[in-house]
């Protein structure tokens, strides 16, 4: 891990030195933070542990210098997070094994808000993808496809976001997701790199077999969940 961190730091320095103008040419107003902040009230999967931050020390030491230190803990499924293929794919990539190139690619935002507003358990269909393509062109190979359900407007309200606010209850979940046929279409017909959604799960709330997780996991496709600010992205 330390070796990997050093390598990353070296690459960052090398690229900054090789392309000095790039380090200053980014317009921060055009950057979109697609994550939610971690705090003790950050939403998490009903059966998962919440994020916790423990203060070890914060203040002046007897030796006369300032010292601050903290412990943190939490589950994999809290806030904006990545589901590695190994989550539902035996022998598939764990997070550290995912090639960086699989998390980089042309972005596609498929808007399913109108459908989700009418049906909180709506599942994105192949027809929705084809409708998007008629307007914007064919999804390119290696794309990262994001499904915009509009569920981000409920972030912070556990009952509305999950469909229930009961700890540990996964029998009454209600939120949009992706249909198995649509997942298979993206894999077989469009050869995507990764997928993401602005809900707690790529499978819709009432799912009991998490078949879309299984489909993407077996194909070594990373899944991003609880993606924030997706509505600020172009299609």
Q: What would your notes on this structure say?
A:
The protein is α/β, with parallel strands linked by helices and 235 residues long. It has a domain at 80-232: Glucose Oxidase, domain 1, CATH 3.50.30. Helix content is 26%, strand content 17%. It is built from 7 helices and 9 strands, in the order H-H-E-E-E-E-H-E-H-E-H-E-H-E-H-E. The strands form 3 sheets. A 5-stranded mixed beta sheet has the order 3-9-8-6-4, with helices on one face. Strands 1-2 form a two-stranded antiparallel sheet. Strand 1 and strand 2 form a beta hairpin. Helix 6 runs parallel beside helix 7 (211-218). It is globular.
Summarize the structure.
By secondary structure, the protein is of the alpha/beta class. It is 26% helix and 17% strand.
CATH class of the domain at 80-232: Alpha Beta
Counting DSSP E segments of at least 2 residues, the number of strands comes to 9
Quick one: overall form? globular
Report the β-strand fraction as a percent range. Answer: 15-25%
Structural class: alpha/beta
CATH superfamily of the domain at 80-232: Putative cyclase
Q: Low-confidence spans: pLDDT under 50, at least 5 residues?
A: 1-19
Number of helices: 7
Give the strand order, joined by hyphens, for the main sheet: 3-9-8-6-4
The run of helices and strands is: HHEEEEHEHEHEHEHE
CATH topology name of the domain at 80-232: Glucose Oxidase, domain 1
What is the overall pLDDT average?
91
- Report the helical percentage: 25-40%
Whole-number radius of gyration? 20 Å
Described by strand count, sense and barrel closure, the largest sheet is: 5 strands, mixed
Terminal-residue CA separation: 36 Å
Named CATH architecture of the domain at 80-232: 3-Layer(bba) Sandwich
